[in-house]
Amino acid sequence: MATQSGCYESVTEFYANTDVFITGGTGFLGKVLIEKLLRSCPDIGRIFVLMRSKRGKSIETRVAELFDCPLFDRLKEENKSATGKIVPIYGDITQKRLGMYEEDIQRLSGVSVAFHLAASIRFDDPLRDAIKTNICSTQELLEILKCTATKLRAVVHVSTAYSNPENRNVEEKLYPAKYDWKKLVQAVDRYESETMNALAEKLSHNSPNTYTYTKGLAEQVCNDYCSEVPLAIVRPSVVMFTIQEPMAGWVDNFNGPTGMLISAGIGITRTGYLPPRNRINLVPVDVVVKTIILAAWKRGTIERTAGPKHLPIYNSAVTYEQSMEYQEMLDRGKDYLFRVPFSRMLWIPRGFPTESKVLYYFSLIFTMLLPCYLLDLLIRMLGHKPFLMKLQVRIYGSEVALRYFAWNEWTFEKKQADNLPFLLDEKDRNTFGWVLPETLTGKYLENAYIPMRRYLMKDPDETIPYAQRKLARMELAERIILIITWCLLLVAFYKSVFAGSV
Description:
By secondary structure, the chain is α/β, with parallel strands linked by helices. The protein contains 18 helices and 15 strands. The strands form 5 sheets. The chain has a 7-stranded parallel β-sheet with strand order 3-2-1-4-5-7-12, sandwiched between helices. Strands 6-15 form a two-stranded parallel ribbon. The chain has a two-stranded parallel ribbon with strand order 8-11. It starts with 10 loop residues before the first helix and ends with a helix. The mean pLDDT is 89. It catalyses: a long-chain fatty acyl-CoA + 2 NADPH + 2 H(+) = a long-chain primary fatty alcohol + 2 NADP(+) + CoA.
């Protein structure tokens, strides 16, 4: 595929000797992006990563810990020196100028490509916080790059496929703004959080949460800057485990379905209020990363002479047929959980989702809340700090926050995203292209289970035999409890029916 000048510039050539700036580089998506850039673009220049001190750890310590992650094992085997290309930059996306020191901003003068991944993905953030994190940060970044990065060739803003959730069929286009983002930015400086929250429903036009609302408006920020900055937007759906690179099944957070499977696996979650036959659009994180890398490449090569107001948008998602039914995802999850259980499970992984609100709350009270309350009492009597009810409250809060997405379904147009690999030559396509199976429910989910067990639950493979024995004991105990319960019920029934005739 030729660029507009008639000469093909490969992806690796585009990134060679190129300085890159990344916000959100320590998040799930950011880590996979950094790993792919370092491994597949070995001649890349410096990668500046915006980060802040966290839990008393300096940004240098956080970078060192970043590379201790198993995600980077393949990179360290193939090109260990590549990790030296990461340059941490102190900052905070909620602050003016991204909280960066002026000398660090000047270090970005040679940056050619920027990726804006940083965002708050909490659905229940106060409106003021969500505006600062998702809208203000986007404006601050684009202002800095516009004034500082004189060699800028491409900026990719990572949005979400649910930035306009009222549209059930999401096209690869910019939708009308729900509000003037500039007025909201001004309101952040004028009003306290309580005032903003009181106005949230009116300002957001009944958006389901502050996350989707502010991410949608962040796209409007990009639209207003696209004449001055070479921008592209990538909208991922629900970003989940890697399907292939650098290892199959890697994930490092408890968000969404991952948390659901793990809490079910330790025996805490026994039910969910959702339509079991609805589908969830999961997209592998390594596919999203390739889309982001290619979106920047295309914007900086093929589209580098595009006219003003050019703003390409890519929906990084799967087809409706490739998406997963909740019921099938949970059934397969339970199958894996019984084959390779967690060693720290509290009870047998059972339960089911339901569309009945009555059945859901009955199950919630008697199979989740009441047992946890009683166990917390026992834990307290043994002199330890109770934690199960607190955990259940968090799980319930997450379930309520996700309910809107569980009860609705979307389809995503993705012609532009799917076309990206076909713009590449054969060598680049082998490195940066992707082919997804007809359905993601089978091997994709199965490959994720062991890494989830190892890296999220910190459950080494050596504990599998112990966990299997523990599960067998629990199943035996469950049978004994059921037998005793039925016997007591039969005795009670016998006494109530025959006691008066004796």
